[in-house]
Design brief:
The chain has 226 residues and is mainly α. It has seven helices and six strands. Strand 1 and strand 2 form a beta hairpin. The structure holds zinc ion.
Length: 226
């Protein structure tokens, strides 16, 4: 086994099966660059491949942070949905990029079944979009678009923070996802909200990024002749 990986014992909260899942030792992962939508590229081992735990018995899948976070209703619903289901792929061993993509899709499917919040779906769709980006696959844009739709819904209806994203970071991210999807007018509006937000003073790196991407979106908007 790659010695930058370690094994973690997990009990599935849905079927109570026990299994070991691999995780990347974060100190062994060297970041190469960070995209403006917070996607991190790595030199070698990418910890994103191991962020989703997949139960090998029932296929219940979620991020490590939310894996045990299920209520009685989720357990009832997921037990019913997963009964008789088989997991055809081994997610407990070293994962290829395709394995990571399949694991992330299972996590999205699980989140939809348990009617997860829009912010949770937005985060998972963004993770999947990044995995497609690593693969050079145009499906990236489909999932950036799902992520954007869900962040817009979450922005209207949910309380902040969303995971580790505070309100101003989400505003920025909505702007950047809009820009990547060619919605330059929307991007300009959202970046404008970031640089006018009083919270920017406590989030100076977000303000700086917003100003840079705002200028880029304006340029792209002009270039498109809109
Ligand atoms: Zn299970």
């Amino acid at each position: 086994m790659n010695n930058s990986l370690y094994s973690k014992k997990i009990t599935c909260p849905i079927c109570e099966g026990q299994f070991d899942s691999l995780k990347a030792k974060i100190n062994s992962c060297k970041a190469k660059k960070k995209d403006e939508d917070f996607c991190i590229h790595y030199e070698d081992l990418n910890p994103a491949y191991y962020e989703i735990f997949v139960c090998p018995y029932c296929a219940y899948s979620a991020t490590e942070n939310s894996f045990e976070d299920v209520n009685e209703e989720d357990i009832r619903l997921l037990r019913e949905a997963f009964s008789g289901r088989e997991v055809e792929r081994n997610f407990c061993a070293e994962r290829s990029l395709n394995d990571a993509i399949a694991a992330c899709k299972l996590a999205i499917h699980t989140a939809e079944l348990r009617k997860a919040s829009a912010s949770v779906l937005a985060g998972l769709c963004l993770k999947l979009a990044w995995l497609y980006r690593f693969a050079g696959d145009k499906q990236e844009y489909k999932f950036l678009s799902y992520s954007l739709q869900n962040y817009l819904e979450a922005f209207k209806n949910e309380k902040f923070p969303f995971g580790n994203l505070n309100e101003i970071s989400v505003m920025y991210l909505i702007g950047e996802l809009s820009r990547r999807l060619g919605k330059y007018n929307d991007a300009i509006v959202w970046f404008g909200k970031v640089v006018a937000n009083p919270e920017r003073k406590q989030n100076m790196w977000i303000e700086k990024l917003a100003r840079e991407q705002w200028a880029l979106a304006k340029e792209q908007h002009k270039g498109k002749g809109e």
